[in-house]
Design brief:
Blueprint lengths: L2 H28 L3 H15 L8 H18 L3 H6 L1 H8 L1 H18 L3 H10 L6 H10 L3 H31 L4 H31 L4 H21 L4 H19 L2 H29 L2 H6 L1 H22 L8 H9 L5 H8 L7 H33 L7 H28 L5 H28 L1 H28 L5 H16 L3 H6 L1
Helix pairs in contact: 1-2, 2-13, 2-18, 3-11, 3-12, 3-13, 3-17, 5-9, 6-7, 6-9, 6-15, 7-9, 7-18, 9-10, 9-12, 10-11, 10-12, 11-12, 11-13, 15-16, 15-18, 17-18, 19-20, 20-21, 21-22
């Protein structure tokens, strides 16, 4: 690779990160899913510059999927997973197989596509990618269990779909379908990926347990994320399932193997890595889509969208009857939250130009891109409305009243402080200040009393306010300790010990409770 190529790649990365940052700010401002905004920007760039951007699926699978999958898996707790484990497994394994077969049959029947090719399409479209939905859940404060259900299913069905894709692709290229051999291969590839991730995850966790260096431990989790994928793929088993397993193992053992300070560093690093991977993936989705190809195959795309939705209905509502008291509203969200994204794009781009795919590859790409666009732009945009419509995020009247009174107090206090500064600077006369300040102070005291009344009337509201305030105090302590270290007042060892105590409190779910006790 020449120096010019390296510089060009660096320029592209910088531009993409700049675009992603701008989209993230705009998405928060206009309250739209961030990933959806990236796809729209990518499509807009494609319209301005019709030259098609080409990249290999390995870019996504080798560089972007591991950090995305590892970060999500790292935050899944065994206790959360255990509660709905069998439902998640039903959705992720039989659900993917059912989706593959049902979508394949419907697409073949509706479009005239050869059944072998249609089954390949069914497999590549079976993997869900709820990044936009999960991000929305975190913003709105949707039930934790529902978030775990959607995210865990996606993590596991990614690996299952990739295994099914390989089986269907082999069958389509070489003819014939041996059920016994396919089942054996499925168990070997999927199970082998889980075993590889388990072994690698436990090994790295034991290594991390014996050191105490945030940077080294973060580097080891990076080795774990990418290394588990490469290791599994070298043994011809599922790399995605290996990363999922390694991430879950690492995340659940981190409390015993990592200090509180290290966990904060690791969490921040992987949050940023997932942000970068998401940014690139969804921008690439918008840049890679050939709009002319979509228009030429709109009928096939319509059938593909219909087939994907019907399969999702059957899978979600069918298997959820085996879940532990899954509310009907949650089933609606699970169904509509089945977005498609990175895995579908990568698998579609990996379709070979041989055998039956010589004539059908273009149509399959169009259908895959069409389904991805529909799920992101239609389902992704409407998810906010659906969650609110179903009233999944319920705020108590006390919380609303507290927010209202607190905002009034903050606004009035800001007005009082501003007028005082104007008086100190000579912009407002002393006479005016002496007249207004007692009245404004009395108003502020009254508003503060109203805030105090609503806080003391609901322990949950009071606890949330106490935790928020105490976390800010802890962050201020951390900043002060960093300043002391920088100025040479304290040693590295003292700094490490004291910051560790602060970080331990920050990692608590209710940090103020310990202080009050």
């Amino acid at each position: 690779m020449t120096t010019e190529n390296i510089i060009f790649i660096e320029e592209v990365i910088v531009v993409l990160l700049l675009i992603a940052s701008g989209v993230a700010v705009a998405a928060r401002r206009f309250r739209v899913p961030y990933t959806v905004g990236l796809v729209i920007i990518g499509l807009f760039i494609t319209l301005l510059n019709p030259r098609q951007m080409e990249f290999t699926p390995q870019i996504i699978m080798l560089l972007l999927v591991p950090p995305l999958v590892f970060e999500a898996a790292f935050h899944i707790r065994f206790d959360d997973l255990r509660h709905d484990f069998w439902l998640i497994m039903l959705l992720a394994v039989p659900g993917v197989i059912l989706t593959t077969l049902l979508v394949g049959w419907l697409v073949s029947w509706g479009t005239g596509l050869a059944l072998e090719a249609a089954l390949v399409f069914g497999a590549l479209i079976a993997a869900t990618d709820p990044v936009a939905v999960v991000a929305l859940f975190r913003t709105l404060g949707a039930p934790r269990r529902l978030q775990v259900l959607l995210e865990s299913e996606s993590l596991l069905n990614d690996g299952t779909a990739i295994v099914m894709f390989g089986l269907m692709l082999t069958s389509a290229l070489h003819g014939g379908f041996d059920l016994r051999q396919s089942i054996s291969q499925f168990i070997t590839v999927a199970g082998g990926g889980v075993v590889a991730g388990l072994i690698f995850g436990l090994s790295i966790s034991q290594f991390i347990k014996r050191i105490d260096d945030p940077l080294v431990e973060t580097a080891l989790t990076t080795v774990l994320a990418f290394g588990s994928y490469v290791l599994a793929e070298n043994f011809h088993v599922s790399g995605v399932l290996a990363v999922v397993t390694a991430g879950i193992i690492s995340g659940n053992t981190s409390r015993e193997t990592m200090s509180a300070s290290t966990r904060i560093v690791v969490h921040n690093f992987w949050e940023y890595a997932a942000f970068v991977a998401n940014s690139f993936i969804f921008l690439l989705i918008g840049l890679a889509i050939d709009l002319n190809l979509l228009f030429e195959n709109w009928r096939a795309i319509a059938w593909a969208i219909l087939a994907a939705l019907l399969a999702r209905v059957v899978s979600t509502y069918g298997f959820s009857i085996f879940g532990r008291e899954i509310p009907p509203k949650w089933k609606h969200v699970l169904f509509w939250g089945g977005l498609r994204g990175a895995i579908t794009l990568a698998l579609a781009l990996s379709l070979p130009q041989e055998g039956i795919f010589i004539a059908e590859r273009g149509r399959l790409l169009a259908m895959a891109f069409g389904v991805v666009l529909f799920t992101l732009l239609v389902q992704g945009f409407s998810m906010d409305w659906l969650v609110k419509r179903l009233k999944l995020v319920i705020r108590s009247a006390v919380q609303d009243e507290y927010e209202n009174r607190h905002a009034r107090y903050v606004a009035a206090r800001a007005g009082y402080d501003y007028l005082r500064r104007l008086n100190q600077e000579g912009m407002v006369s002393e006479h005016t200040w002496q007249k207004l300040s007692p009245l404004m102070k009395k108003q502020n005291d009254s508003l503060m009393d109203e805030v105090r009344q609503v806080m003391t009337s609901d322990p949950d509201v009071e606890a949330e306010e106490l935790d928020t305030a105490y976390r800010e105090a802890l962050r201020a302590q951390r900043t002060a300790l960093t300043g002391l270290l920088r100025d040479g007042v304290i040693t590295d060892e003292t700094y490490s010990n004291l910051v560790g105590e602060v970080d331990e409190s920050l990692m608590d779910e209710n940090p103020s409770a310990r202080l009050i006790e």
